[in-house]
Amino acid sequence: MAFKYDLDYIINFGIELLKTPSPTGDTQKAVKLVKDELEKYYPCEYTRKGALICKIEGENKEDALLLSAHVDTLGAMVKELKPNGRLKMSMLGGYAWATVEGLEVRIPTEDGREYTGTIMTTAASSHVNGSLTQSIERNDKNLEIRVDEVVKSKEDLEKLGIQVGDFVYYNTGTRLCDSGYLKSRHLDDKACVISLLGIAKYLKENNIVPPRTTYLFISNYEEVGHGSSAGVPKEVTEFISVDMAAPGPGQTSDEQKTTICVKDSTGPYDIDMKRKLIKLAKENDIPYELDIYPFYGSDASAAQRAGVDARAALIGPGVDASHSFERTHIDGIKATTDLALAYVLAK
C-alpha cells in the first residue's frame, strides 16, 4: 500500500527547518517554527523544558502511541574571549572537532547583534607553521573562531557585545540534489521532524481518526541525553523514536531505506514492536533494514531511563556521515514516513 501524502511539502519545510539554527539550549525559534506548522492541523503545547507535544485524538484514548523526533542539533558556545581576538568554543552534543574545522559560523549576541566567523586551528597557515598545520591535534584547545571583524584583543571582542555563553551556529550547507539526495548538517534529526509533520498533515486532510490517540513529541535536548526524559503523557504505552540511522562499514543502514534499530548502546528495543514494524514494512512494500548501533542512544531510551513505563522502538532514514556533513535521500525520508504512518494506522 502506498500512502499518498505531500512529499514536496515535507522536503520544502525540511529545508526551511534545516536553515533555522537550533543548537541544544537555543531551540526556541525552531520549535516555534514547527509549532506554527503543526497547529494548522492539531493543537500543540509546550512542556516546561520547551519541548513541543501535539495530540491527535484516536478511538482508544487509554492505550496511546507517541512518536518522537528532536529539533535540537550539535553546535557550540563561546567558552573564552582570547587575548588574540579569537574565540574558544565549548562543544554542544558529541562529535569530533575535526568535522567542523573550516566551517563558517554565526555568533548571535544577547544584545541582538550577530557576527560571522570561521573555525580554524591555531596553526592554520602552513606557510607559518609548516608540518604543524597538518599534525596539530583537533581539539577544543587548538581550535578557535576567527571572527570577521577588526578584533585583535579580548577588549575588541567585548566591544562587539560577544560574551561567554553566546551560542555558535554552524552553517548547514543545505542542498537538495537533482538525484534526490538531501545534504546538510543537522539532518540528525530534522529529517525526521518533517516526517511527523507529514503524518499530521495526512491524517487531518484525509479526516482520519487513528485507532489510538497518537502524540507527536518534538524534543529539544536529545543531543545532551535528556530530550524525552520528561513530559511523556501517562497513557502512552508505546514510544517510537524517529531518528537517523547510521550507514557505514559493518552496518546495514541505507540512505534510501528506513531502518528498524534492534539494539543500540542502551540495549535491545522492544521485540514485539520490532516484529510489528517488520510486518508492516513487508505488508506495505516499504524498503527497510535491521541494524544495531554500538555508539547511539535515542529519546526512547532517555524516556525509559527516566522511568517512563512504555515499550520502545527506533526507526529512521539512513544518514551518511552522522554528526559531520550529513546526507540522506528523499526515498529514505519517505520510507520512514510510510512506516511511522503505517504504525499509527495499525489496528
UniProtKB/TrEMBL annotation:
Annotated Zn(2+) 2 binding sites: D188, E223, H323
InterPro entries attached to this UniProt entry: Peptidase_M42, Peptidase_M42_aminopept, Peptidase_M42_dom2
Active site: E222 (proton acceptor)
Domain of life: Bacteria
Cofactor note: Binds 2 divalent metal cations per subunit.
Gene Ontology MF, one: metal ion binding
Gene3D superfamilies per the UniProt record, alphabetical: Peptidase M42, domain 2 (2.40.30.40), Zn peptidases (3.40.630.10)
Listed GO biological process terms: proteolysis
The protein's required cofactors: a divalent metal cation
Binding site residues for Zn(2+) 1: H70, D188, D243
Keyword Membrane appears in the UniProt entry: no
Keyword Ribonucleoprotein on entry: no
Pfam families in alphabetical order: Peptidase_M42 (PF05343)
Swiss-Prot/TrEMBL keywords: Aminopeptidase, Hydrolase, Metal-binding, Protease
Similarity comment text for this entry: Belongs to the peptidase M42 family.
Name the UniProt record assigns to this protein: Putative aminopeptidase FrvX
